Predict the 3D structure of the following.
Amino acid sequence: MSVSAAGYEPDAADPVAEAKALYRKGKTAFDVGRWEDAVKYFEESYAQSGNELLLFNIGLSYYRWWEETGEIAHLRKARSVLKTFVARAQRNPDKLGDPAEAVAQLNEVEAKLEQAETEAEARRTRGAAGDGTEQGADTTPPAPSPDPADPAAPVDTGPAAPTGEDPGKGLRLGGVVSMALGGVGIVTGVIVGAIHVGNSVKFDRQLRDTDEEIEMIVATGITQKFVDDTLGGCSQVDADVNPDAAKFCDLQDRRNAIVNNGKRANLFAALGFGLGGGLGVALLATGGALYAIGNKKTKAWKERHALRVAPVFDGRFAGIGVTGRF
């Protein structure tokens, strides 16, 4: 049994051709960080072949998927699959190998899951402990109304006309600027993300082509072990003496470069969509809230400046009170 970047690699002599093809697709997806596709292909390969070594690949792919998305369901699935693999490996170590690495991975997943579930429970508790008051609602008690039975009680004639500038103008301006920046952020994030998604697809295609070339050379007996043990490593290979070995080494270097480029493309795509798009949405929401608050303040300010007429009774005379800007 050998260990690859995606975990345990199924036996190369597996007679189920379709399962082997699915495994290779899963490994390629894992190498470039497409975790959802890695899970899909590994699960389909397992369904075709029943090779229990694939359970480790599936569990590890779910774990990496959780690291990217934060979806606790992926973390729970990783724990479930890894527990199954560990249990079977402990019962049958001759077939599945030493489960120590899988046990260590399972312990890490369980620790992360416990932490995530504790944080989720704390958020639910804080939400349940709320008093039901809508955030931002005005909780100031209303002023008592004058008693109509008391002739000396004044009838509200409205507040005195205030002076100064519109208090909501700055908030509205800030809201407009914030929404404009949010729109720019979303567009930029989508463009950057789309460009790097395209690059990721290109590197994925290059990786598949390179893997096929490597497999053709491996079929002739040129393997990494042969190069290391017989020829002293790729640095010692003479292209004139061993052209196949030299080509094998060149393809391995190319594959490593493609994998690294694919990971960078995925990272920049995530940053484009996540930071650009996420920040843009946040700025839009903030701008909308600022504009609404500013508009409300302006409306109240205008109402206080408007001409208002109301009856006045103070126990000594009756008349009409007029307030506002003239």
The radius of gyration is 34 Å. The domain at 2-119 is CATH 1.25.40 (Serine Threonine Protein Phosphatase 5, Tetratricopeptide repeat). The longest helix spans residues 243-305.
